[in-house]
Amino acid sequence: MFTLRIRKVVHHSDRVATLYFSSPLNSYPGQFIMLNVFDMEEIPLSLSSSSSVTVKAVGETTRKLVKFSGGELVGVRGPFGRPFTPSKRALIVAGGIGIAPMLYLYDYLRTCDAKIRVIYGGKTAEDMIFPDRFDDSVILTEDGSLGEKGTVTDALAGEDFERYERIYVCGPEGMIDAVVKILDDGDSLHKAEISLERYMKCGIGVCGSCVIENGLRVCADGPVFSGRDLK
Question: Is the pTM for the entire model greater than 0.85?
Fold first, then answer.
C-alpha cells in the first residue's frame, strides 16, 4: 500500500463526489483500486480517470469520502483487474454511478480517435453525473427530470448493434441483466464488455469474497467480463 493526498474534490451532489489524487496512477480504463481511509474499512473503487475516483455515499467509508474537501491522505493498493479492450467504434451503456469507469474509458477512446456513442440513464436528475461530457449521447431519466423520459433499455431498442465493434456496459445489476438479454437477442452479446462491482476484501483473487455465480472472481478475472461470461 502507498499513500496519496487528495488534491481536489468536486461534489456533484450531497451523495456523490469525485476525488482527484495528487499524482496519476499507472492504470487502464476499467481497473479499480483498493482505497483505505485510515481507521476505516478498505473498499474497492473503480477509477474514473488515471488520477480520480467517483464515489457515491452508500456505506460508512464512502459517506466519509464524499465529505472530503481536499488535502486528506488515503492509502491505495492497486490498480487491479482486467481493463476494457479499446475499439474504434464504441457504444457505451451506463446507469447511475456506473458512469464512473466509463468516464475514463470515454476519455481514453477519444485519444484513439474512436467514434463513441453513449447511452446514459438514471432514476432522477440527481443520479446523473457529468451528463454534458459526451458528444454523441442519449441521456435518460425514469422520471423525465433530465433528458428523455425512459430507461437505457428503451434507448437500446432503436440501436443498430452492427455499427459497433465493442459495446461497453456498467450499472445496476438489474440494468445489466436487461442489457445482456437485449444484446443476446440481437446476436451481439459477443461484442459486449461488462464491468461488475462486488464487495471485496483482498482485491487480488485470494479471499473469494467477490466470486460470482459462474465461479469467476470479480477482482482477478474481472471486473470487466465478456458478455458471454455473464450469459
Answer: yes
